[in-house]
Amino acid sequence: MSQAVDNTTAGHGARPIHVYFALLPHSLLLDWAGPAEALRIANQSLRALGQPDRFVLHFVSPTPQSVTSVGVMLTGLAPLPEALQALPTPSWVVLVGLPGERIDVDHTDARALLHWLRGLCLATGQLELVTVCAGAIVAAHAGLLTGRRATTHHHHLEELAAVDPRCDVTANRVFVADGPVHSSAGVTTGIDLLLHRISDICGPVVAAQVAQTMVVALRRGPNDPELSPFLHHRNHLHAALHRVQDAVGRQPQAEWNVPAMAAVAHTSPRHLTRLFLEHAGIAPLAYLRRIRLATAEAALQAGQNVTQAALMAGFSSDTQLRRAWHQFGRGGTPSQGSTRSR
Prior knowledge:
- This protein has about 350 residues and is of the alpha/beta class.
- Helix content is about 40%, strand content about 10%.
- It has 13 helices and ten strands.
- A six-stranded mixed sheet has the order 2-1-5-6-10-9. Strands 3-4 form a two-stranded antiparallel ribbon. The chain has a two-stranded parallel ribbon with strand order 7-8.
C-alpha cells in the first residue's frame, strides 16, 4: 500500500519526501486518511502545475494486515523499513491515535513499533516525526519527545506529561512544531498540520488548492491565529474566484488589473468585483496589493533590498511598495523590514 515515484522525476532540485504512516491495530481512521488525502491532492495540484510529485506515501505496520478503528481491515501493509535515517531522500514518520481513554502499548504490535521508533535519529529536513492526536503518546513511549515541545488531544495531555515528564506539553494549540517534531491536537487537526507542511514544502498556492479541494479552512501556523496573506480571503467555495487567486499568487509580478483577472475567471470586470466583494470580502485590486506586499515581505526576509523586493512582487517602484506597506498597517519601513531579517 504505497504510492511509488521514481526519484529521478523530482526536478527543480527537490527530492521527494517519503511519508511513512505507521499503523497499529485500531488506528483512528481519520487521523491518517485525512492527512494522506491532503498529500495525495498536493501531488495532484503539483502535476497540474507541471511539477513533479513531492510526496511518496507508504503505509507500514509490524504486521501485514490490521483492523482500523471503524472495523475495516487493511491488508498489504508494508513492513517497518530498516535503516530509515540512512535513506538518501528525506522521510517523515507519521504516528496516529488509538481509541480509548489511555493508549495501550503493552501488546506485541506496539512493542515492535516502539522498538523500531527507538532506533530512529530525527533530523530536520532529513527524518522528521509527525504525530496526530494520541500518536504523540506512542512517540513519548519511544522517547522521541524528550526535550521537545509537543501537543496532543486534550483528553491525553496529562497522559503525555506522565509518560515523558521531560516533554514540554503544550495545551490549546492546533499543532506545535519543534525542530523535526510536528504534533497536532487531534483528528481533523492532523489535516491542519499537513496543510501547514504542504505550504512549507510546496508553497501557499498549492496548500490553498488542497484546502479548497478538501473543503476545509486553513490556519497559518502553530502559534499564529492570523491567516497567511496568501490564504486570507480564501474561505469560500467559488471556483472561478479561486482560479483568479491562484493565478495572482503564482505570478504576483504579472501586469494584473481587474480586466486581466476577469479574463482568468471568464467573467466581466464588473461581475468579478462583485464576486470578490461577496465571496472574498475584499476588492480585486486590494487583494492584489495584499499578495504583492506579502511577496515583497518574503523577499525582504530572504535578504533582498527594497528595490529588488518591489520588483519581485510586481510593484512599479519603491514608493508604491512603501505606500502599500503603510496602507496595510506594517510597522516601520520596508528598509527596516529588510534589516530585521538579517
